[in-house]
Amino acid sequence: MFSDFFSISSDIIHQLCMIFGYYALFKKSGRKGWYALIPGVRDYQLAVTAEHEEEGKTFFILSACSFVCNLIFVYYDEGSAMWIVFGSAYFALSLSSFFYSIRIYMAYCDLYRRHRRWTVLWALFAPFVSLLWGYNKNFQPSHMAFDAEGSKAAAVSGATVDTIGEGLTVNLTDRTVIDFFRKKALLKDIHLSIPTGHMVLLLGGSGAGKTTFLNALTGYEKANAEVLLNGNNVYTNYESMKYDLGFVPQQDLMRDGDTVNMTLNDAAGLRLPKNIPFKERRERINGMLDKFGLHSVRNSLVEKLSGGQRKRLSIAMEFVSNPTLFILDEPDSGLDGIVARKLFESLRSIADEGKIVIVITHTPDRVIDLFDDVIVLAKDTGRTGRLAFYGSINESFEFFGKKSMEEILLSINQMDEGGEGRSEEFIGKYSMKISEQAV
Q: Most buried among 76, 181, 310, 385, using CB within 10 Å?
């Protein structure tokens, strides 16, 4: 009985030390202290604080699975087949989670600028080490970590743009998700209007929210936003407006065994209203063949097409519905300079017909003369996608003090990505600019 009492008391002391120690560590790093109350969650948050979130997620999943296996295998008779299966699973999962905890502790040592020898003490005596680091003023993190909803990022502009009758108007407050017990802001404070007839470059580094922004525009992933196309709300009138939105993904969705004509016919069946007359549907398909230079290969198999022809067919598939807003994600991927140039000239002609064309490309400078405007997205200190600039190409060069889009991208990329790490500067500068214009 005494041994049972001692064991229970040890467990209680262990948990209390963990709670108070982790609470102090989280407060030092600018995180919410209540995370320390929940086993598993606190170790995940420890990883997030040390900027090793993926390791924290894996550790949490492994720990949860090992806990479940432990609960199950104790109910089977010792030596039985199921006892061996779940016991082995418990051992393997526990060992894996232990190795991930080591990686988290090593990252935490780096955060506190302490020698990694401390990792051994963390692994053996985590409750007591957390108390020491949490309450000793000699142990301080090298930088603070902030929750997405409370990050010390550039202030929001508080401004909105007026609706334009012919064009795209976007007033996006934020786009958030719940990810592993915390709210993350993927996008915030994006307000702009694009007139019809404009071809716009969407520029931003990895993780800046380009794809999330495009998904918000098309209603694929709705944000806390108002998106108006020619005065009509895309979110509330999506069923009637979906044919007016075109999106060409980076990877094509064509079947190699189909002909070009069959591919366009299937696309028309999906992209055009069901009640459209057969004659008009056939005229639309023929129009796409002519417009994108595919008439000579209309009976060829998709697998026999060149890279440029496949790209033009991908674009034709989406443009068959004659959308007003046309979005393309890296349409020049894998194409050489001459072929890519011709492709972008085709997009320029589409914009000149009174459409809005928004393009992501990793090589914008070779075709920058074809664009009217540029949208620059960048990550703030909370790793949220923000609007760092929107305006004409020449204005962007003046705003950033650069001579090319590549230089602009380098200026907003983080230093660990090979950039200048000035994203917060330009986000704040542009936010102030549009705030002043709104007054």
A: 385
